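User: Fold this; tokens only.

Assistant: Input:
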Amino acid sequence: MGKKPHKRSKRSQQGLHRHVFWAALVVLVLSGSYLAIHFSGWRPQMPSIMPWLVAETARKGMRADHVLVGGRRLTPPDHISAALAMTKNTPLLGLNLLEIQTRLQQLPWVQSAHVRRQWPDTLVVTLHERIPAARWRGADQTIVLIDQQGDVIPTINGAPFTQLPLMVGDGASSQVGRLMKAWRQFPALRDQLAEAHWVGGRRFDLILKNHLTLKLPEGDISIILPQVAQLIAEHDLLSRSLRTIDLRVEGRMVLEKIPPTPVSTATTTSLVRQPPSSDKVSTP
């Protein structure tokens, strides 16, 4: 049991030594080439010599044969491949990392990207993706995805993400970060939110998955929600047959019950044919 960590440590050290060796080799090749060009008097021709230098490093095995991508959850792999725009045997030194990074950050799910070379033959890509926080239905009734900052995730259809709450109303997207941060503080309610309607640019109507509507007052949602959660817990409101909990007036709570299902008053006629009645005759 005690030897396994030692083996992993030794393996990682070997990998580190390998990367250091190749990095040193790259520096040696580039430095030697630069000095040769500098002292030969060809320095003005440096831009035209660079393609040769890049090809020379590729000939020595420094090609982008492998790509390591970290942080990918929602970005399709083929979108990443298209953004990298790499072909087989691409020289690692010839890659424009800034251009690759810019193309990656133009993908819908990508918030930021970092790209680096890992000598001798690997390009390392680290993605920080947008986290979808909710769906948003605006005035045009189109449903889009928004992240935790309330920014629309472009070109992504939000309709299939039915597990996320639906924000409704102009300006609702700008409130999603504060609402979801406050809502997640209460485990009993965390997975119950179905819709959040931003009313008049001032307050929320929250619709739970059991169709109960919470009419919240105006004010700071981070202050209001703890009070609402406390009322729900104290009065066990989630287990009661309620349609609406109205908290818009300070110091008052108005409960609207779900009306009972009406009982049908229609008469019921039996379709079973009854035998004719007969007088009972007693025998002597």
